[in-house]
Write a structure and sequence with these properties.
With 444 residues, the protein is of the alpha+beta class. Helix content is 39%, strand content 25%. It has a domain at 11-78 and 106-189 and 303-382 and 410-434: 3-Layer(bba) Sandwich (FAD/NAD(P)-binding domain), CATH 3.50.50.60. It has an 8-stranded mixed beta sheet with strand order 6-5-14-15-16-13-18-17. A 6-stranded mixed beta sheet has the order 8-2-1-12-20-19, sandwiched between helices. Strands 3-7-4 form a 3-stranded antiparallel beta sheet. It binds flavin-adenine dinucleotide.
Length: 444
């Protein structure tokens, strides 16, 4: 595919996470040949955890040509079992078999590193059009001169790098977002949600002596145990070789010892104490974790931004819409952003239109991404209720789901699924580009 500006545009991407990698790949697929990724870390080093590959994401991964790299790792989900934490009573069993038929792709889950590696393989195959710069941290940005300030390999010296377009996929702690807000005298305001998450992975050999747990590993189901202020979601990944467990609970650890990092090794005894009132099956599961492998993430969000664009610079992914994990859509939305950015940029015929093009991208993406951030937060509120009467009403709603009721867990609510999974960001961009471009032109 050729883009009118494809051979001339120098595009710098901040951050080689899910969003940055997908953006680079989509740009090359759309005809761009001079794409540079600047990543602060020395390698991709993704923490071990599972990730949900919903239909809206697998659709794009297939388009990007990287699905084959991770297909073997993925596990297809056929049902979601929602259970009371203390009794293990199944409150709701939602079949997911309709997903493939209704949205053209099944709902899958996979290892996070399988997704990252698939995107990385795609980028490497796109060499020389994509160049990686590891241990290259963006420390500043000059919006007028269109350049980023990069500190490489921990050197004291920083250097400025020019670019025609700068795409900031530098995550929830985004330096570029901070600079963009500062330009307008606004405060960068990453909000503490008061919640944290343990990410745990059990291997088959750790579970195979326990028939009940082994059945879960061999199933095509997610298991969600809900209790006051805490819940656990677990599912098999890596072709049923690994059981991925992710929790949400009140943040005690980070609140007690604030650090610059929002990810840390955590204490196994503290984790067991946090879930001590959960049913024996959950406790046996948590007991199996190797003490040195308990990882905890602080969960943060950001108030919606007025804009994602400044001049020739645009934010994407967690940099502009960090989310709670309850819908499993953070990475998917970052990747959709990247795909749409590539389409929009590929349609531009004049350098003078780059700013307008980026505003079109914002129009295409902002409302959807921010709506999903709100829905994830709403789902979290429903799952983590503390008031007994409200819990009882919610649990009854769960029981009624099989009779066509709406689901308090938005992740398995049919209307939310229609909105999230039934959406093709490429079709949407193609459909609205002309109209939005004309509208943005009129406003400038
Ligand atoms: C507990 C938990 C569970 C989750 N589960 C799911 C799930 O099941 N499904 C899902 O879709 N999403 C999930 N998410 C969300 C998902 O992980 C994120 O939304 C997604 O990774 C965002 O991608 P990103 O590229 O925007 O940011 P990131 O993946 O965070 O990547 C940012 C990159 O930028 C780099 N960087 C940062 N600062 C700089 C700098 N100054 N210079 C250069 N590089 C820099 C970082 O090193 C990193 O590589 C979960 C999140 C959490 C916390």
């Amino acid at each position: 595919m050729s883009a009118p500006l494809g051979l001339t545009l120098r595009i710098a991407i901040a951050g080689a996470g899910m969003g940055g990698l997908a953006t680079a790949l989509a740009l090359v697929q759309n005809g761009f040949t001079n794409v540079h990724l600047y990543e602060a870390a020395s390698n991709l080093g993704f923490v071990g955890a599972g990730i949900q590959i919903a239909p809206n994401l697998s659709r794009q991964l297939q388009r990007l040509g990287v699905w084959e790299h991770m297909a073997e790792d993925a596990v297809e989900l056929k049902e979601a079992s929602i259970r009371a934490c203390a009794t293990n009573e199944e409150l709701s069993n939602v079949k997911l078999t309709h997903v493939a038929e209704r949205y053209g792709q099944p709902h899958r889950v996979a290892h996070r590193s399988a997704l990252a590696n698939a995107l990385y393989q795609g980028c490497k195959a796109a060499a020389p059009h994509v160049t990686f710069h590891f241990r290259a941290a963006i420390v500043g940005i000059d919006f007028d001169k269109r350049r980023i300030q990069v500190r490489e390999r921990d050197e004291d010296e920083e250097r400025w790098i020019d670019a025609d377009v700068i795409l900031a996929a530098d995550g929830v702690k985004s330096v570029v977002r901070k600079c963009m807000l500062a330009l307008h005298g606004e405060q960068d305001d990453a909000q503490d949600t008061g919640q944290a998450a343990y990410r745990i992975m059990l291997r088959r050999d750790q579970m195979e002596h326990d028939p009940e747990l082994l059945t879960m590993l061999d199933s095509n189901s997610t298991f969600r145990w809900i209790g006051p202020q805490r819940h656990i979601i677990a599912y098999p990944i890596s072709n049923h070789a690994i059981f991925n467990i992710s929790t949400t609970h009140p943040d005690v650890n980070f609140a007690a010892e604030p650090t610059a990092s929002w990810t840390t090794r955590a204490d196994k005894r503290t984790m067991l104490g946090m879930y001590a009132d959960f049913c024996p099956a959950v406790m046996r599961m948590l007991e199996l974790v190797t003490a040195s492998e308990v990882c905890e993430w602080k969960l943060r969000v950001h108030r919606p931004l007025r804009t994602w664009v400044e001049g020739h610079v645009a934010l994407l992914g967690d940099a502009c819409h960090p989310t709670l994990p309850h819908l499993g859509q953070g990475a998917s939305q970052a990747i959709e952003d990247g795909v749409v950015l590539a389409i929009v940029l590929s349609k531009l015929t004049r350098m003078d239109d780059i700013h307008t093009g980026l505003l079109v991208y914002e129009r295409l993406r902002k409302a959807r991404a921010e709506y999903l951030v709100e829905e994830a937060a709403a789902s979290g509120r429903a799952l983590l209720l503390t008031d007994p009467a409200a819990q009882a009403a919610r649990d009854e709603a769960f029981r009624q789901v099989t009779h066509g009721g709406t689901n308090p867990d938005k992740w398995v609510d049919r209307a939310v699924q229609d909105f999230v999974y039934g959406f093709d960001c490429v079709d949407d961009a193609e459909k609205h580009y002309g109209e939005y471009f004309a509208a943005e032109r009129r406003q400038l």
